[in-house]
């Protein structure tokens, strides 16, 4: 296959921004904090940190490397690389399950992106000013109970995503994240400061970092691994697709390290911002998906300058959600475009409409369809659980196994710029620790 069949990132920075734009999103702030709260805190956080390092890093590097070699959409990349290495074309199924996962995730991601948009507006009009915990909680329950409002905001979010993808301005958005991502970090730091001032920071620290290992079970470990995949955008072919635009000059391991550190730091800051507010107001950490939408408005509604800070925060959160959502739509669109006769615009519209319809089912599960259950889970929980705990780990496992056992070792060593000694260590991680880790977690989590 001709290399460099399509364009490359203009610079390393452009690539880091795009990868970080995909990684940093609702997963870091909304999902990380609610999963941490729901899973009992520190044990979850520590397992998540271990998963990010021991499993996330090698899989991220493997996905990029495969993408850089394949230069195509994830399905064709896997099929062709497998064929050229004398392996079965069945490896393409990794690409297929990745694209499927991206499609499923975007459907509910857009619903939450809609919440973030709604809260941006709420901040502008001062809905949260001076409200107490009960009032803020009631506002959130009202939102969940109102399918029309949820539908409007879910639709608005999807329209934004499609508008950006169709107009091809994703690069501009990535450039903007150069300013907006640090701004998000600054706002999180302000919130952490607010948490320190609340007097409950110590409790939050204990909750997040002092584990009660007794509370650790297979379910928590699987949830933590799922979170690691979700937050790093792994197991979806997304990083693979990005890798296909990657120049030979980019050092994969150090770039992966940068992206992971940034992504993890933002998640931890979000936790340190949110849990003091939870404890200071006697709220429940295991509130579920509404956690940040109850705690943060409460803080913004009661702090000096809260209106403007709240507005900025939800705007930035929406922005981070948009850059991630675009990266979720991309593999679906790319696949449709390359495998059907649809044009770019046609493929974008068809994918977006399909995602939107599934998103409607997800948002109805918060109200009129709350009793519609799959395997005991409502539609929203089912989509989230099935993707993060099953599809992503299995796809990621496929990618790392393919890297470790099908690609040429010496070539990989040169590509990773490692000496023999470091490469042995790296291989230990990539060949044994990561795949076995995924398998063990997966099996214990399911039993
Ligand atoms: N990583 C993104 C986040 O944390 C979500 C995402 C998942 C984006 C998968 C792309 C692919 O919000």
TrEMBL record:
Record-linked CDD domains: SLC6sbd_Tyt1-Like
Keyword Transmembrane: yes
Transmembrane segments: 12-30, 42-62, 90-112, 150-169, 181-201, 221-247, 259-283, 303-329, 349-370, 390-407, 428-446
PANTHER family, per database record: TRANSPORTER (PTHR42948)
GO cellular component, one term: membrane
First-listed, main subcellular location of the protein, grouped into a coarse class: membrane
Signal peptide, first to last residue: none
Pfam families, alphabetized: SNF
Name of the protein in question: Sodium-dependent transporter
PROSITE patterns given in the database record: NA_NEUROTRAN_SYMP_3
Domain of life: Bacteria
Localisation per UniProt entry: Membrane
Membrane topology: Multi-pass membrane protein
Coiled coil ranges: none
Keywords: Membrane, Transmembrane, Transmembrane helix, Transport
């Amino acid at each position: 296959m001709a290399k460099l069949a399509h364009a490359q990132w203009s610079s390393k920075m452009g690539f880091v921004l795009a990868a970080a734009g995909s990684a940093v999103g609702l997963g870091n702030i909304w999902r990380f904090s609610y999963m941490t709260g729901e899973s009992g805190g520190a044990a979850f956080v520590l397992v998540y940190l271990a998963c990010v390092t021991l499993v996330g890093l090698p899989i991220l590097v493997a996905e990029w490397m495969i993408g850089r070699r394949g230069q195509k959409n994830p399905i064709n990349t896997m099929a062709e690389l497998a064929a050229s290495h004398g392996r079965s074309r069945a490896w393409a199924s990794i690409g297929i399950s990745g694209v499927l996962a991206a499609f499923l995730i975007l459907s509910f991601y857009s619903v939450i992106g809609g919440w973030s948009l709604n809260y941006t507006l709420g901040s502008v009009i001062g809905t949260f000013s001076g409200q107490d915990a009960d009032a803020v909680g009631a506002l959130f329950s009202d939102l969940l109970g109102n399918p029309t409002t949820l539908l409007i905001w879910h639709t608005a979010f999807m329209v934004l995503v499609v508008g950006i993808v169709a107009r091809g301005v994703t690069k501009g958005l990535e450039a903007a994240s150069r300013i907006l991502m640090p701004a998000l970090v600054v706002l999180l730091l302000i919130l952490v400061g607010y948490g320190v001032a609340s007097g409950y920071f110590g409790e939050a620290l204990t909750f997040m970092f002092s584990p009660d290992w007794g509370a650790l079970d297979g379910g928590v470990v699987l949830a933590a691994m799922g979170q690691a995949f979700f937050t790093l955008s792994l197991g979806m072919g997304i990083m693979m697709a990005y890798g296909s635009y990657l120049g030979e000059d980019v050092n994969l391991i150090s770039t992966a390290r940068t992206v992971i550190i940034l992504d993890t730091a933002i998640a931890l800051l979000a936790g340190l911002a949110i849990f003091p507010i939870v404890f200071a107001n006697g709220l429940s950490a295991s509130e579920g998906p509404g956690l940040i939408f109850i705690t943060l408005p409460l803080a913004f509604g009661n702090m000096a300058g809260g209106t403007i800070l709240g507005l900025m925060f939800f705007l930035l959160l929406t922005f981070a959600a948009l850059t991630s959502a675009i990266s979720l739509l991309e593999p679906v669109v790319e696949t449709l475009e390359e495998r059907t006769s649809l044009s770019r615009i046609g493929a974008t519209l068809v994918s977006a409409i399909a995602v939107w319809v599934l998103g409607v089912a997800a948002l109805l599960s918060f109200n009129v369809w709350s009793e519609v259950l799959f395997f005991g889970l409502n539609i929203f929980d089912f989509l989230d659980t099935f993707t993060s705990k099953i599809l992503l780990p299995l796809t990621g496992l496929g990618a790392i196994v393919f890297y470790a056992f099908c690609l040429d070792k010496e070539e990989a060593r040169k590509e990773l710029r490692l000496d023999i000694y470091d490469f042995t260590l790296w291989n230990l991680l990539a060949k044994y620790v990561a795949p076995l880790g995924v398998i063990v977690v997966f099996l214990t989590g399911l039993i």
